[in-house]
Amino acid sequence: MTSLGKITIRNVDSGEYTRMFPHTVSVFDSVDFATLNSARAEETLHLVFFDSSGNPVMGWIAGRRDGQILAPFSAPYSCPSANTVLPVEVLVECMRSLHSYAGGNMHLTLPPDFYAPDFLPALKAAILTAGGTLRHADYNYHCEVERAADPATPPSRTARQELRRAINSDRMVYEIPDSADRNQIERVYRIIEANHSDKGYPVKMSLDQLTDTFMMTGGLLSVITCDGEDAAAQIGYYSSDNVYQPVYWGDLPQWSHMHPMRLLFHRLATHLLDIGKASVIDLGPSSENGIPAYGLCAFKTSMGCHLSLKPTFTI
Questions:
Q1: How many CB atoms lie within 10 A of CB 283?
Q2: Which of 85, 94, 82 is closest to 129 using CA atoms?
Q3: 45 touches 69 (CB < 8 A)
Q4: Cα–chain-centroid distance for residue 156?
Q5: What is the pLDDT of residues 202-229, one digit of tens each?
Q6: Is the distance from CB of 285 to CB of 120 less than 8 angstroms?
Q7: Is pLDDT at 3 greater than 70 in this prediction?
Q8: d(CA 127, CA 122)
Q9: How far, in Å, are 7, 194, 239 from residue 185 at the CA level?
Q10: CB–CB of 120/137 below 8 Å?
Q11: Which stretches within the chain are classed as H helix?
Q12: Is this prediction's pTM over 0.90?
């Protein structure tokens, strides 16, 4: 146990952490997710912040690797867990304690604000107040499911025309493969792999890693076929109670002229709207270490998505 003023930080075991914090902001903040990816860190930390009476007020899962503390150590972002609304002064004190605990050697990447609109702005302010520094902020795009399902949403006339042509085409079909079928997961993966190869960058997750994660989190597979051949696909998770995140999506270069990605996004949103399982689609970052990929930013904007920031701090 490390006593730091009013707040004490202790690394507890996974079972104790789960009992203290049964609810998380996203699936990526859960003990199950950290356990699945534990091989990617030298040590998994289940940090609990205790008040002066010994009550747990907040928890944060992180990992040690290469002499640093990382939150996340194998996920798009990381967010602490709390069972009640924390006053700003408590958040600041927690972050001051974390600063002392980590010695300026901890890197935090937070989710965009729409995951926790009240909590995350207060947390970012507390990190800065406590002496944390902003390393960079990635360009993250999202869209409300209802908005994405509306063919009138794309802001430009060209984008709306491309979507309407794709919707009206009798050559393209939207499929929802069985998410429990590993062969279908591999089918989607191979489409994504070919897309990434064409663009000159690898898929960061192996097929086995993606399959294991998908089976744990639950999610959806989508495929667009054109003239009976696979043309585009996505695989994604329900990253929180109301957010769906396509982790990988892309089309095959020989079908790009048919705009299958516009149809894929529209049909995915329509399906999510029909089943009522998410209100927001998180399309993730369009940058690397804060450097934007302008073409990807433009494409997501053309679909009616909103820009938000995914910040990374050192504390």
A1: 23
A2: 94
A3: yes
A4: 27
A5: 999 999 999 999 999 999 999 999 999 9
A6: no
A7: no
A8: 9
A9: 45, 14, 18
A10: no
A11: 14-20, 31-36, 88-102, 119-129, 145-148, 157-168, 182-199, 207-217, 260-275, 294-302
A12: yes
